Amino acid sequence: MAVDRHARTMLPIPDRPKPGLTTYDAKDPDTRFPPIEPLLPPDGAPNVLIVLLDDIGFGASSTFGGPCRTPTADRLAAGGLSYNRFHTTALCAPTRAALLSGRNHHSVGMGSITETATSAPGNSSMRPNTKAPLAMTLKLNGYSTAQFGKCHEVPVWQASPMGPFDAWPSVGGGFETFYGFIGGENNQWDPALYEGTTPVEPPATPEQGYHLTEDLADRAVNWVRQQKALMPDKPFFVYFAPGATHAPHHVPKEWADRYAGQFDDGWDVQRERTFARQKELGVIPADADLTSRHAEIPAWDDMPDELKPALARQMEVYAGFLEHVDHHVGRLIDAIEDLGVLGNTIVYYMIGDNGASAEGTLNGAFNEMANFNGMAALETPEFLVSKMDELGSPSSYNHYSVGWAWAMNAPFQWTKQVASHWGGTRNGTIVHWPEGIEERGGLRTQFTHVIDVAPTILEAAGLPEPTMVNGVQQSPIEGTSMLYTFNHSDAPEAHDLQYFEMFGNRGIYHRGWSAVTKHRTPWVMTGGALPAFDDDVWELYDGSSDYSQAHNLAADKPEMLAKLQRLWLIEATKYNVLPIDDRGAERFEPSMAGRPTLIHGKSQQFFPGMGRLSESSVLSIKNKSFSVTADVVVPDSGADGVIIAQGGRFGGWTVYAKQGKAKFVYNVLGIQEFATEADIPIPAGNHQVRMEFAYDGGGLAKGGDVTLYYDGRAVGTGRVEATQPMIFSADETTDIGYESGTTVTQDYTPVTSRFTGKINWVQIDLGDDNHDHYIDPEERLRIAMARQ
């Protein structure tokens, strides 16, 4: 093997020209310069493909004994290795931050999701520049890099069209190409997409057959083909992270229909079937036990009979969704194989970034935002049954019930968010690398963790861990390379100590033993008092004889439990876990959480053409009185279209014109819609249209009275009976003069939403202390500045 001439511990690799004879005339026979050579990794460095699916339990995929058919995962497992003790962090953004850095999630500031970031170092959502991402390291060593799909690592105050973009994949993340979405989830039928940092619209509509997963696969396949066509000697690093199978569970109906009737026996029976299949496949030990159902999770037999068909359909849709995304992963694998480079491509297929999600309530959800707003009661059993046939379609924003999440995590306890137990953190993972792995279809049982992926890839590529990146000294990678397991199935595990924590649910693994305590229940969004941390009850499990954490030994071995509890505290201190933070609503409010916010004061101005503004980029009008004033120019033919819209089909509000008249619509979760319309059209010419909402007060989610004005003259009144108190949408945005994504009301379509007149400006004001109903154009800026 040729000697590597590069000093790769300092990145970018310094340019160090060798001194020699400098001639005066280029025609001089002594004129010699070495040829310019493109930067490449060491000889033989493999291509890398990381596939990270979303919200999938250990017992969901057919590869690990589950009911959802995953033939691509099955195929890769048959040609590579399956890891049955691979772990994540119990939540999506923390797992992704850990994966892409090789560090624990609190070490890179991602103690939870970006939307609940605080000013504490372990929960700030800001990766320190001393912990450069893997993609940056590979790019600076000569890899081509690309990411397709979900990025949930951008701090919410940096997710506006103005950035800053340091945390975005194609800027500070090290990916030369990015196509996907920013945030925790997205509408699979009508996503808010970015190419690099530029907002783009989907290339087709749902009616034309568009689906996000297919689009992402198309882009990834085309990129890989182009990369090998233009740079055949240069390896690639592709990170393929589709939003599937995170809610909303969106999939073409024919994929869900493949599972018709297969879940009619319920989650208790399904869990038993999965457990038996897991033993049959050998993906769990023969002596493993199936953990019992906790009292907080209802039995299938205890669910209302009239609701069961809808519950079964929820799982059919989910299963189809998982099979659908696996199919499109297969298209990417096929493309790499067709190029003749699959043999020297390390494929990590991680089936889930945490356990199956129990965020869909005990009954499941037609619109999961209902639960995030503490309004799940609006979705009655009768309502859910009436919407059963729409599940998975563009008119839904659905999630399955807690019972199905529990079943999909078989044989383990608990679910996503519960970092204490393996149900929240153990994800079936496959590694496929024909030229680097001798065994085909092998099983690896060493304890491994998502922070181990980065050092594995660096070791496989022959690259050192960098000590300096972009002029900043780097802290050590905290993961342990898994390469030692590739060709040594019985090698002692090298990663034998690992802490876990999420919203106070915490645990530690050390040399086979695990000590864990569950602090809060994921699906309980509001109400319910949490215990003091010191009152949490810890459990103890011996992993050498109890694979699934089925037998609590805390009472039998108190000394071992105390040792592990102390060790958890040491690790928590080392990696910025402290202070433990189990707060709920407080962490959603920036001022209480201590994170920056883009918007200050009680007034915000917008201008026509502004759009794709995330909720954190716009003044919050929730649970308070507010007004919207727009200075518009109406043509003689009259005005139509959106003046301002926030949210979309599944919750939001809009001020617009319909057949010349101003209208205001408040949409509560896509379940209730309250409209107020002016009595007369907006006159032609330059006028101010104003909407005032007078909040009832007395708590959250209350209603209020609506008044519409033209130039200070009341022209219409109405009533909103209820509002959304916490969040409108995880993916819809605010737009001025048009509406992207789905529409708040069916009164218009995205095509007809563009305002036909001219909008000079739009302004939101909070409070009910301004009753002038008219803002003089010359005074507009002065008033706004005074309110800051």
From TrEMBL:
CDD domains: PAS_like. SUPFAM superfamilies: Alkaline phosphatase-like (SSF53649). Belongs to the sulfatase family. It comes from the Bacteria. Residues 46-462 form the Sulfatase N-terminal domain. Residues 1-21 are annotated as: Disordered. This is Arylsulfatase. InterPro entries: Alkaline_phosphatase_core_sf (IPR017850), Sulfatase (IPR050738), Sulfatase_N (IPR000917).
